[in-house]
Design brief:
GO terms for molecular function: acid-thiol ligase activity. β23 and β24 form a beta hairpin. α1 packs antiparallel against α2. With about 525 residues, the protein is α/β, with parallel strands linked by helices. It is built from 15 helices and 27 strands. It has a domain of about 100 residues: 2-Layer Sandwich (GMP Synthetase, Chain A, domain 3), CATH 3.30.300. It starts with a helix and ends in a 12-residue tail after the last helix. It has a nine-stranded mixed beta sheet, with helices on both faces.
Length: about 525
């Protein structure tokens, strides 16, 4: 189970088939393999050793795909950096992963100075585009100047990448994902999302995100064509679908809503689409009904998962997207376990509960993470006896469908991005007028959930919402900052162990809702 296997397969069996389309650039599978092997040779010449981490901070592109396969070919592990994070957060991930080589595009090159002041491990920076700035190497020059090297053929439990997520302690943590885990996810999602060799997949979700990695991996396993837009924007996304006759697309619910509600939305532009995959955050039922009504020729699939599972846990198949009749209740579910994945619903002691009883989802598959990078205690809390404890509260019915009803981890899912409350609380707590803070997710029509802070001011202080949000923006990514703030003088409700009872704080905002998360 080595990830370069799928590249070799496509290049051996369909050498002249179009592999990637990025604007005016089109490359065949034979060309992509040649470029990947040369870039791998360049990485080795840059003293990259087996197991070394190679990071990237860039928007979507064909070169992003080449970077990932070249890193694996050379024997390394990828570190895709979050394009929405601040320089401080990305510097943390570079230092934590000990990445010595960083690839960057022109969009993020201006941030490099700020990152470089804090990132102490990076010694080589490669610019992905033409005309590399002073002090950076050129991606294309490296490919042109180096001979191919032998494929390292890393496989099974060899580290494939570190994927950074928010942390429950206020710091990001790197999820260690193996070659086997990604290989398994590519097979499972590729089959269940119906990827074929003539499929054309659009990379519009960010490529650092595990959702796109899984969907793109399914297309790669089938030898399909990859189309890229730098980042999501409704009109450019619709145009890319129409111009390239895209068959498979992944849009998180927020993106889909923006497309369907855009003044330039045109059903005709989606004529080629056969399969639409959604995930990363729950789909509002009203939006799903609208999409299925406007696009009746499209098969809809939902995937639920998390980075710790690389990411697949459950799939709601197209045949289960039923809007009327007795089976219509399944549309509210997250589907059934994906191929090769087992789940169980457990209580606080880890014991399986009866069907229909709410507990925590625990899952295991070949996609299990190896653990959290250099975080043995957090690993032990999450990976127990081979089962990943997801932190999501749910029940499973007699037919195996999983219904998520709550979030046991202190996490908010806003617009498809995970926000750990501890990170936001840590940033707010450094404001000079804040005595106490608790952060929760509250309902949002646009984002599913939005970040909401409840602040206890210091005695004699009167902080305002704007000053606290501005304070946060200097420390954490904009999407993590609170969208709204309430102030209170009474103490927070506490458990017997002295922990803030977040469910009690959230309850008034979710009153009348079927579940306490979106």
């Amino acid at each position: 189970m080595h990830l370069t296997q799928m590249l070799h397969s496509a290049a051996d069996t369909r050498p002249n088939h179009c592999a990637t389309i990025d604007g005016d650039r089109r490359k065949s599978w034979a060309e992509v393999r040649e470029r990947v092997s040369r870039l791998a040779g360049a990485l080795r010449k840059l003293d990259m050793k087996a197991g070394d981490r190679v990071a990237i901070l860039a928007l979507n592109s064909d070169r992003y795909t080449e970077y990932m396969f070249a890193t694996w070919w050379a024997g390394g592990a990828v570190v895709p950096m979050n394009t929405r994070w601040s320089a401080t957060e990305n510097a943390y991930s570079l230092n934590d992963s000990q990445a010595e080589i960083l690839l960057v595009d022109s969009h993020f090159a201006p941030m490099i100075q700020e990152i470089g002041d804090e990132a102490k491990t990076v010694r080589t920076i490669v610019h992905l585009e033409e005309n590399a700035p002073e002090g950076m190497l050129s991606f294309e020059d490296l490919i042109a100047a180096h001979d191919p090297c032998e494929d390292a053929m890393r496989s099974e439990d060899d580290l494939a990448g570190l994927f950074y997520t928010g942390g429950t302690t206020g710091f990001p943590k790197g999820v260690m994902v193996s070659q086997k885990a990604l290989w398994y996810n590519n097979i499972a999602l590729g089959g269940q999302a119906n990827f074929k060799s003539d499929s054309i997949y659009l990379h519009t979700a960010p490529m650092f995100h595990m959702a796109d990695l899984a969907a793109g991996g399914g297309a790669m396993m089938a030898g399909g064509t990859h189309v890229y837009v730098p980042s999501f924007e409704p009109v450019s996304t619709m145009n890319a679908i129409a111009e390239n006759k895209v068959t498979h697309a992944l849009l998180v619910p927020t993106m889909l809503g923006m497309v369907l509600q855009h003044p330039e939305f045109d059903v005709a532009k989606f004529a080629s689409v056969t399969n639409y995959l959604y995930g990363a955050s729950p789909m509002p039922e009203g939006l799903l009904r609208q999409a299925m009504s406007l696009l009746p020729h499209v098969d809809f699939s939902q995937a639920y998962g998390q980075t710790e599972m690389a990411p697949l846990v459950t799939i709601l198949d197209p045949k289960d997207h039923v809007l009327e009749g007795p089976r219509s209740k399944q549309i509210k579910s997250a589907g059934r376990p994906a191929w090769g994945c087992e789940i169980k619903i457990v209580d606080e002691d880890g014991k399986e509960v009866p069907r229909g009883t709410v507990g925590e989802i625990a899952a295991r598959s070949p996609g299990n993470m190896l653990g959290y990078w250099q975080q043995p205690e957090q690993t032990a809390d999450t990976l127990i006896d081979g089962w990943v404890h997801t932190g999501d509260g749910a029940y499973q019915d007699e037919e195996g469908f999983v219904y998520i009803v709550d979030r046991m981890k202190d996490m908010i899912v806003s617009g498809g991005e995970n926000v750990f409350s501890a990170e936001v609380e840590s940033a707010i707590s450094t404001h000079p007028d804040v005595a106490g803070v608790a952060v929760v997710g509250i309902p949002s029509e646009q984002w599913g959930e939005s970040v909401h802070a409840i602040v206890i001011p210091k005695e004699g202080s009167t902080p305002d919402e704007q000053s606290i949000i501005a304070h946060c923006k200097d420390q954490i990514a904009g999407y993590k900052c609170p969208r709204s703030i309430d102030f209170r003088t009474e103490p927070f409700p506490l458990s017997g162990a002295g922990k803030v009872l977040k469910r009690e704080l959230r309850a008034p905002y979710w009153k009348g809702q079927e579940r306490s998360v979106s």
